[in-house]
TrEMBL record:
Segments crossing the lipid bilayer: 12-35, 63-82, 89-114, 120-143
Keywords on record: Membrane, Transmembrane, Transmembrane helix
Organism: Staphylococcus succinus
Descriptive protein name: Uncharacterized protein
UniProt keyword annotation of Transmembrane helix present: yes
Length: 153
């Protein structure tokens, strides 16, 4: 087995690492700056519910708790700079695909509430996270099929 990683393997690892860092930063901006009480209240109003402080806090905490788990999972991708392991490859693939699926569940309600209570630019972080996760998941899947391995192992 080759001890020195190939250039292609290193470039792929750096792409995954830096992209996952960017995704983590943008998702944190979405969760802690954009998704505030006014957006959650608007989400409840748009769904025909009466927004109480308890409901707003519960929904916001739910989004943030799950979001922190995705932020930490995305930050795990930085490890691929130093350790290019097959398990890390498939873990990051699972993170990207599950993040897409999780956000698609409420995308209409979240986008509607953001557009109603804030400006159009505030949907950019979540949109970029979704697009980057989708592109990386497809890229990783195609690379694993084309190379018949992950990180050339």
């Amino acid at each position: 087995m080759d001890l020195k990683p190939s250039s292609r393997e290193t470039k792929t690892a750096h792409l995954i690492a830096y992209s996952s860092l960017i995704i983590a930063i943008l998702y944190a901006i979405h969760l802690f700056v954009i998704l505030d009480d006014s957006v959650v209240k608007q989400m409840l109003i748009n769904s025909g519910q009466k927004p109480s402080d308890n409901a707003v806090g519960t929904i916001k905490n739910s989004f943030q708790f799950t979001g922190v788990m995705y932020i930490l999972a995305n930050l795990a991708g930085i490890i691929s700079i130093w350790n290019r392991h097959t398990y890390l490859w498939w873990f990051m693939f699972a993170v990207f695909t599950s993040q897409i699926l999780y956000n698609l569940i409420n995308i209409g309600a979240v986008y509607g509430a953001i557009l109603d209570s804030k400006s159009m630019i505030n949907i950019l972080p979540l949109t970029i996270v979704m697009v980057m996760s989708f592109i990386l998941a497809i890229y990783m899947f195609i690379v694993s099929i084309k190379r018949k391995s992950t990180f050339n192992r």
